[in-house]
Amino acid sequence: MLDEHDKYNRYRTSTGRKCMGRQLAGKKWRLITIEMSSQENKTCPYCAETIPAAAKRCPRCRIWLSFRSLRHPLVGVFVVVLPVMAAYFMMGYKLLNHFQMMMNPPPFYSDFPGSIKVLESRMNWADTTDGRFLFVTGIVTNQSSASWRGLEFDIRFFDSNGQMIDAANGRSLFTILPGNESAFRVSVKPLLSSNDYSSFRISVSNARSAKGPF
Predict the structure, then answer these.
(1) Distance between terminal CA atoms of the chain?
(2) Residues 61 and 127 in one domain
(3) In angstroms, rounded to a whole number, what is the distance separating the alpha carbons of residues 120 and 141?
(4) ∠ CA 168-148-152 to the nearest 5 degrees?
(5) 55: domain range?
(6) Per-residue pLDDT tens digits for 154-169
(7) pLDDT tens-digit profile of 40-78?
(8) What is d(CA 194, CA 190) in angstroms, rounded to the nearest whole number?
(9) Backbone angles phi, psi at 55, to 5 degrees
(10) CB 146: neighbour CB atoms within 10 A?
(11) Is the overall model pTM greater than 0.85, yes or no?
(12) Does residue 76 belong to any structural domain of this protein?
């Protein structure tokens, strides 16, 4: 004869049911069981439907639940889209550098500081249809071994006490060859009366290589 404990173990083994507990009913144990699922389930966090636990994409709301699938859209973004964008960025960066080098090829004036000297200069006042203008004219010389164009001038104006009262930046588009001299003229719209301008100081602050197209 089998006791209740043996019946319990044999019942669990033969039926494949999982016993959740045993309850005493009179003098005998009554088995409380539930069916063991052949496949564990889980709840979709988006639509709250019960779906297979191994599902990587909800079959009902069609939302991906796992990032470990190669078919996940974000995997395609990281694996394909981002590398392609990075490649295009690097290509654009190289093209921009190439364009800048083509527009302003070496040598650079920063490597030849002060190589273009102002030999002489003077201020000239003139009345035009746009008002009274101040023109700074003079002669520069190129003491470097490179040819330059598009000279940029830094001009500072002072009163009779030596205080700076105005400043301007001008540009001339001529080309100056190594060892040569060239005349220049820079126009300035003054802020004060002509009587306030006693002296000035002018220098070449920058220039572009004559090898460039412009």
Answers:
(1) 110
(2) no
(3) 10
(4) 5
(5) 39-70
(6) 999 999 999 999 999 9
(7) 888 888 788 888 888 878 888 877 776 656 566 666 677
(8) 8
(9) -70, 130
(10) 19
(11) no
(12) no
